Amino acid sequence: MNLQAIRLFLHIIRRGSLAAAAGELHMSPSAASRLLSGLERSTGLKLFSREGQRLRPTVEGEQYYHECHRALVAVDELPRAARRLAGGAQSRLKFSTASRLATVLALPTIARFAKSYPDVEIDFEVLRVQDIDRIRTGVDFDIALAAPVPTGIPAIQLAPLFEMPITAVMRRDHILAKRNFVRIGDLAGHRLIATAMGPGREDLEQMFKAEGLEARPRYTVSSIEVGCRLVLGTGALMIADPAVLLTADRESFAAVPVKPLRMIQVSVATPVMKPESRLMRDFKACLREEAKLVEKRLSQFFRGPRKLRKDR
After folding, report:
1. H or E segment at 8?
2. b vs e for 205-217, b when ≥16 Cβ sit within 10 Å of the residue's Cβ?
3. Can you give the pLDDT at residue 305?
4. Cα-Cα-Cα-Cα dihedral of 258, 160, 295, 306, to 10°?
5. CA gap 167, 265 in Å, rounded
6. β-strands 54-57, 48-51: how paired?
7. Quick one: which of 40, 32, 35, 38 has its CA closest to 57?
């Protein structure tokens, strides 16, 4: 595929104008138009719709933008990688994680690992909701944190770390906050917050559908972290795992398990086709140690009368 066409596409998205993008790339508007048309033909995608003099990306154009941006970042990284290898530096790990596990688990793991390996380069990527499925491909990373666990994926192998319950996250003064469990039917009359897309949204809709109900979120957000903080300002509630609350003011939130109890498994994912190095093995050992601390902190949400029992 023509990299120049991809660069033109990204510039048009950013500037909203074919002429402006062509000027930045030192191209004539006619040449840029031909290049864009060729890109749409080769991909089979309609990337833009016209609004007057502006080009507005279509839904598939927006999705393709994110893939192109990621790919070009990797391409532009190649010269630096060559210089690094030519200079004799070979110790490097690429680590990916979902955003809600970044602060509570990923960052402490990197800090622990750095004490033993201060000279190792680490490329740390926090995946957005729409990018989580990239873990399934087994490429673009050495180690990744997966939650929930993608099952039946031949490209990756998984090692479990800990599990945590799906909960209804709400303010401490919410009418449901003192319950030991809540059912989906209990939530139907309350305002809901949900992610706009991704596994969390799919799980929410399936849970409501299983009870013969339709999930109708009052608010949709781009991430679980944002949603849980919106809980405080709106009095609404959100179906989420409690890990995100470990970075918030614990006294402001209640996390009530949803009945029937559903657990989310947090695991370490590694590509099947990539041999495990000593660095990878030691990094995973650091992950396991930090996971024990996270699991201990999570248990504080469910002490006393709210202690989890899978038979209830």
Report:
1. helix 3-15
2. eebbeeeeeebeb
3. 41
4. 30
5. 14
6. antiparallel
7. 40
Lookup: tokens for 75: 């391409």
| pTM for the structure as a whole | 0.65
Say what angle helices 59-86 and 3-15 make with each other, to 10 degrees.
120
- Tens digits of per-residue pLDDT, 152-209? 677 788 889 998 888 999 999 999 999 989 999 999 889 999 988 777 788 888 889 9
Q: In this structure, what token pair is assigned to residue 49?
A: 């719709």
Fold of 3-71: Arc Repressor Mutant, subunit A (1.10.10)
Every domain of the chain and the residues it spans? 3-71, 90-163+265-299, 164-263
In three-state form (DSSP H/G/I as H, E/B as E, the rest C), the secondary structure along 155-203 is CEEEEEEEEEECEEEEECCCCCCCCCCEEHHHHCCCCEEEECCCHHHHH
SS3 category, 285? helix
DSSP-assigned letter for residue 106: I
Length of the chain: 312
Average pLDDT of the chain to the nearest whole number: 83
How far apart CA 5 and CA 48 sit, in angstroms, is: 14
Query: Same CATH topology for 90-163+265-299 and 164-263?
Result: yes
CATH of 164-263, one of 3.40.190.290, 1.10.260.40, 1.20.1250.20, 3.40.50.300: 3.40.190.290
Q: Using the structure block, give the residue that is written with the tokens 């990337």.
A: 47
Q: Write the CB contacts of 186 (distance below 8 Å, at least 6 apart in sequence).
A: 176, 179
Tell me yes or no: is domain 90-163+265-299 CATH 3.40.718.10. Answer: no
List, for residues 250-270, the tens digit of each pLDDT value.
788 888 999 988 888 899 988
What is the distance between the alpha carbons of residues 157 and 154, in angstroms, rounded to a whole number? 7
Strands (E), 119-155: 121-127, 143-146
